[in-house]
Amino acid sequence: MAEPTAPSPTPPSSRFTYRHLTQLSKSSVDCPLRVVAHVDLDAFYAQCEMKRLGVPREEPLAVQQWANLIAVNYPAREKGVTRHITAVEAKKLCPEIRLVHVAVWTPGSTEWRYNDSSLPSMSLSKSSLDPYRAESKKILTVFRSTCPDAILEKAGIDENFLDLSKPIYEQLVAENEELREQIVGGKGSELLPLPGKRRLDWYGSHLVATEGEDAETGVEEVEEVLDWDDVVLAIGAGMVKRLRDAVWEELGYTCSGGIASNKMLAKLGSAFKKPSQQSVVRARAVQPFLNRHKYTKIRNLGGKLGTQIVDHVGSQLLPDLLPLTLPDLTSFLPDDTATWVYNTIRGHDRTPVTPRTATKSMLSAKSFRPPSLPSTPQHAFQWLHVFIADIWARIEDEEAFTQVVRRPRVMTLAFLGRGAQRSRQMPIVGGEGRDALRRTAETLLRAVLEEGGGRMGLWPCMRMTLDVSGFEDRETGSGNIGDFFTRKAASLPPPPLLPASTSASASILPTPSSSEEVETDLHPSKRQRITSPPAADSSTPVIPPSTSTSPSPAQPAPPQSPLTNSNPSTTTPPPSLLLCNLCNLPIPPHELPEHQDWHVAKDLEKAWWEEERRQTPQPAQPGQAAAGKKGKKKVAGGREKREKGQTVLRF
Fold this sequence. Notes:
By secondary structure, the chain is an alpha+beta fold. It has 3 domains: about 15-30 and about 135-300, Alpha-Beta Plaits (2-Layer Sandwich), CATH 3.30.70.270; about 45-135, MutS, DNA mismatch repair protein, domain I, CATH 3.40.1170; about 360-495 and about 520-535 and about 570-605, Dna Ligase, domain 1 (2-Layer Sandwich), CATH 3.30.1490.100. It is built from 20 helices and 24 strands. The strands form 8 sheets. It has a 6-stranded mixed sheet with strand order 8-9-2-14-15-12. A 4-stranded antiparallel sheet has the order 16-20-18-19, with helices on one face. Strands 4-3-5 form a 3-stranded mixed sheet. A hairpin with a 2-residue loop joins strand 8 (about 150-155) and strand 9. Helix 5 (about 130-145) packs across helix 8 (about 230-250), helix 15 packs antiparallel against helix 16 (about 435-450) and helix 16 (about 435-450) packs across helix 19. It is found in: Nucleus. One of its GO terms (biological process) is mitotic sister chromatid cohesion.
């Protein structure tokens, strides 16, 4: 009798299932096979200036903004030069270092420019980072063309996250027949077959050391029994290598990369070996890799939260925080924060890579220093126009880069004077172009100055910021309701205007001059509603300006305006103003067409609403019962009894 044959041993299985493969194809944050890369440009500002000036890569160079350094290339770092030290200190450490100042805006200019021959004045110039933003957009273009299926998140002007899960899934299935044959029939919970013993190409990446390994082992290729998490990381390393090579070949910039299973580990990995290198954080190396860091250096664990934890634990070292259990953390942190910290220090991060390449807001600001503090509205308006030029140039650059027209909806102006601070916000009106931004900004500045009540409360100006936000996509040829009313009004005859009378009150603000027109699409009564200043009439005193203006030696004398009139008691408007017979307000001649359009548009709007009211059926009176309604409870007077929480709308 033949002996029974022993069953063949079951081949070893992977730790991962077919469901995990499906999650990988969808870039799920819950997928254990997920691959995220962080690509960081090496000393980006310094590289941009080296490329612009043709500086050899071995020459020490630093970028300065006023007196301090904001970027230092690696040859200068080898000499001990670091960021945030002064240019004088850098010269002492490295006499041969080349210092380059960032581009600047100057009052009255319509574009930024470099001043390589001399150091620009901090009081009379505003720094510009637009050259670096332009190069950053070129790099994003290379990223998109090299990894078109990856999810790309712009984390900063010089760093980006990429979720490579989807393209890795496609390559993984295409290159592994054992997965391709069973991918359709495999059950979700069924374990995948092991990839087997193979030689992985890590494309020159540094493999972060596991316990007991030397930090430099496994730099090129490793032959061992692997699982699919190692395979997908190796594929990701190849993609990042090709991406970094493309940036170098097309633009001449070096960058470093980190490849891991989440954003936190990828960001730490990109800083592991720099410059122009990349590192891979495998699953078995996560905790040893984290233990060599201070937890305050981990993404989102610095700041106030990190300080709070340090005060409680007494150490910044991550191994000193690991013994704390979740109940220990909840004893001094909120429950959700404690849970997040507990998972983060163990390498767990479910933050998605979000495609945030589009700008949400833009800000232009300037802090002023003595002796060149703006002390008159004319100086403030000059800087305001610089802010508009700065913001509009960035809007146009983004439009050219994305091929999508996007315009802001809201503008905010903040004005910090000596002992007083004012800010105003309003929608951007009158179109979507540069002139609309300028008119809105000028309206806001007038509102701030009117609220200040004169010179003494606000001047001199210490800081001014202009912010535009609420960006929306615009289709070519589309318009809003305001544009419709403007076109309708243009086809109708304007209402007659009368010459301004001598009894009309004058604003405390300068009227537009021939050299610098100031326009607004808002009716003056609307401006009153925004600024809420008292109307300047015979019963409301107007704060008189100073009878003389003494500009500082560093500033040119401002042009004469009604605000600096030598006779502050007069309230008669300039004879060039006309008095509107409909609203009885003085209007500059150059604003007449828009002012007339405003009246006609309001009449059209009023007529439209009246027609809507006539066509809308009137609701039943409170004492009438609705026809066909049954079962309603009545109270005295024939009214329906209201349920709890109901209210009656009275028309």
